[in-house]
Each structure stands twice: as C-alpha cells, then as structure tokens.
Amino acid sequence: MSLEREEGPAIEPDSGETRLPEAPDGEDVPSSSGASRSLVDDIEDLVFDAKTYLDAELSYQKSRASFVGESLKRVIGFAVVAAILVLFAAIGLTVGLIIALTPLITAWGATAVVVGLLLLGAYLLIRNAGAAWGDVMAAVHDEDENGEQEG
C-alpha cells in the first residue's frame, strides 16, 4: 500500500504559512490570512458590516420617506385645485342651465327645476352611501358574532 499525499491545504514546516494546493502553473498559492484570523475578528467584522448596512438602509428609507412626503404634498395640492375647478364648472353649469331654461319656464321655474334635480341627485348619492355603510357595519357585526374580536 503506497502512501500518497492528499490534495488540500498543507502547512509548510519552516514558514508556518498555510498554502493551497499547487496552482496549474506549478506555483503554490498562499491562502488569505485565514490562519491568523480568529472568530472574534470575524464577529467584529460582521457587527461592523451590520452597522454599516443599517446606517445605509436608514439613510435610504429616510430619503425615500422625504421624497414620498414631498410628492404627496404636490398630489394633494393638484387634487385640491382640480376639485375647485370642478366646483366652478358645476356652478357654471348650474347657472347656465337656469339661464337656458328661463325663456321656457320662467326664472323661478328654471331655478326650481335645476335646484330640484341637484337635490334629487344628492339624495340618491347619500342613500347609496348609507347602504354601503350598512354593508360595512353588517360585515363588522358578522365578524364579531363569529368570535373574532376587533382591534
């Protein structure tokens, strides 16, 4: 039975340096200072890297939140201006309808028709909102009866 040398890291007796198996061109490749590193050093490096990552992540999230906040302000501003313009358009349409209907059914009749239609529309919208609210409350009460608790 012949004794053959195993492939793998070998310790040179005179230098104390760990060497990897020979490279294809015939030279030994020194390992990265693995023999001189300790577990404590690795843990310290890991903690340092974790702190660095945490700092970078916090900075990223802060800048992201700042961007979202500024964008949200712009969105709200545009929405408010758009709502005001829609309100002005509705007022203009209402006045225009009254003016257009005046020759047909007098000024008081035109005003009564336009205001009556607007109030009817508002009543239907409020009734639908109430029905939707009732559905939500029924779903909440149904969950309570099944033993699930709120909050």
From TrEMBL:
The answer to keyword Membrane applying to this record is yes
Which positions, given as ranges, span the membrane?
75-99, 105-126
User: What are the alphabetically sorted keywords of the record?
Assistant: Membrane, Transmembrane, Transmembrane helix
Q: Which domain of life is it from?
A: Bacteria
**Residue span of region Disordered:** 1-36
Please identify the protein, giving its name as recorded. Phage holin family protein
Name its species.
Answer: Alteraurantiacibacter aquimixticola
Query: Which lineage ranks, top first, belong to the organism behind this chain?
Result: Bacteria, Pseudomonadati, Pseudomonadota, Alphaproteobacteria, Sphingomonadales
